[in-house]
């Protein structure tokens, strides 16, 4: 894991967008896995700015969203479909036919629906770069504690803590979804590269357990330790629970010397 520390969320947004934009320029026909939620919002804003002001061309990009609330229609104001459109898709030139978000209103054989989502990812050549946020309970996607570390796209029941966290974006009195369609940990680990974003004090414990704790299904983000190409990009508040901060700072200095001006590739 390459742990990258930045001062605040503004720096995190810029650095995350810089890494994604760098990969898009390296491989214009890249396939991105994308998270919704508050953490990557500023990164999407910065990508839109790079597209508008600095000519970042996303016309070759394919995207797969990590998850969607079950029972929530793509048009619902709080769906991840809508979130992704408003945050990114409506403002850049990714061809709509290459944008994939699980359909929360999929009906009939949901297992078959999820298996087809996996096949679509495979047909696109797999995910080159997967962007992740992290839940307070250490989830990535909606892979709640005790999710199999080999899991594939499927329906997951959300924990009460996650439901409470999600409540803030739903209207007063509105039913907050209790289940989601989510890529599995096995799906996520097949991405060629992973960028995990963590911001704010609420993520401090989850980040420490994911990065420095044992690999355990109780903190599904800890499974990223098994992946050879992971960057964990953190603001100071999210990083505050880490024990090896001085080491990560030294690694950052070394990496900057070895690959000046480049989006470093994580190694090990
Ligand atoms: C969203 C997702 C979730 C979020 C996580 C953090 O697509 O997969 O794992 O990344 O719940 O959410 P925020 O960023 O809102 O704190």
Q: Describe it for me?
A:
With 268 residues, the chain is α/β, with parallel strands linked by helices. The chain is 35% helix and 16% strand. The chain contains nine helices and ten strands. It has helices at residues 9-26, 41-54, 80-87, 110-123, 160-167, 185-189, 204-212, 236-239, 245-258, and strands at residues 2-6, 31-34, 62-65, 67-69, 99-100, 129-132, 154-157, 179-182, 193-198, 230-235. The strands form two sheets. Strands 1-10-9-6-2-3-5 form a seven-stranded parallel sheet, with helices on both faces. A three-stranded antiparallel sheet has the order 4-8-7. 43% of the residues are buried. The model has no long low-confidence stretch (mean pLDDT 95).
Characteristics:
268 residues, alpha/beta, 7-stranded parallel beta sheet, 3-stranded antiparallel beta sheet, 9 helices, binds fructose -6-phosphate
């Amino acid at each position: 894991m390459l742990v990258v520390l930045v001062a605040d969320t503004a720096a995190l947004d810029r650095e995350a967008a810089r890494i994604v934009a760098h990969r898009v320029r390296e491989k214009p026909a890249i396939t991105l896995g994308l998270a919704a939620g508050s953490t990557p919002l500023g990164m999407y804003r910065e990508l839109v700015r790079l597209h508008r002001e600095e000519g970042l061309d996303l016309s070759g990009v394919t995207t797969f969203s990590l998850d969607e609330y079950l029972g929530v229609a793509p048009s619902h104001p709080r769906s991840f479909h809508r979130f992704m459109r408003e945050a990114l898709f409506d403002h850049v030139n990714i061809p709509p036919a290459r944008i994939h978000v699980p359909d929360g209103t999929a009906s009939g054989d949901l297992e078959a629906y999820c298996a087809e989502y996996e096949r679509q990812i495979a047909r696109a050549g797999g995910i080159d770069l997967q962007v992740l946020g992290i839940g307070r309970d250490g989830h990535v996607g909606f892979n709640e504690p005790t999710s199999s570390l080999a899991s594939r796209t499927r329906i997951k029941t959300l924990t009460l803590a996650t439901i409470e966290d999600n409540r803030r974006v739903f209207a007063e009195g509105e039913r907050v979804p209790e289940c989601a369609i989510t890529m599995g940990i096995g799906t996520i680990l097949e991405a060629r590269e992973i960028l995990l974003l963590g911001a704010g004090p609420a993520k401090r414990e989850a980040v420490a357990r994911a990065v420095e704790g044992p690999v355990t299904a109780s903190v599904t983000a800890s499974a990223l330790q098994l992946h050879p190409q992971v960057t964990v990009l953190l603001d100071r508040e999210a990083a505050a629970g880490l024990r090896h901060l001085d080491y990560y700072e030294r690694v950052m200095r070394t990496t900057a010397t070895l690959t000046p001006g480049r989006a470093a590739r994580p190694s090990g």
